[in-house]
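Let's practice the habit of predicting before peeking. Look at the sequence and jot down your guess about where helices and strands might fall. Then scroll down.
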Amino acid sequence: MRYWGLVLGIVVSGAAMGADVHATSAVTFHRDVLPVLQKNCQGCHRTGEAAPMSLVTYQEARPWAKAIKEAVLTKRMPPWFADPAHGKFSNDRSMARTEVETLVAWADNGAKEGNAKDAPAPRKFVAGWNIGQPDLVVEMPN
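Done guessing? Here is the structure:
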């Protein structure tokens, strides 16, 4: 009897702490992870950009599941070094706790692909300059 009380106490505590309603083992790439990656990662983690690997498709992201988990838990990714004690920033790149929990649950539970029909539309990116055309571009001759 004491054993069941302990188990129920843990389940109730998880719900009280705001744990996600659907089981963490049910987290899939297309339905849950891809929207987080599109919002927080794909600006840099796509072909031709600064990041060393693309995280646009399941096939690209799956090998990096454990590294993604570690990077978001240690807050190395997404990069955001501004101190919130000094103001609220309109370009704040930090992730919400629920987004981090989604990525961690995905990595911890086998990094499942899920149904591709659950995926959001691919994110569209601006080609070339992302902050408007510059007034002048100076190139070095050599």
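How did you do? The radius of gyration is 19 Å.
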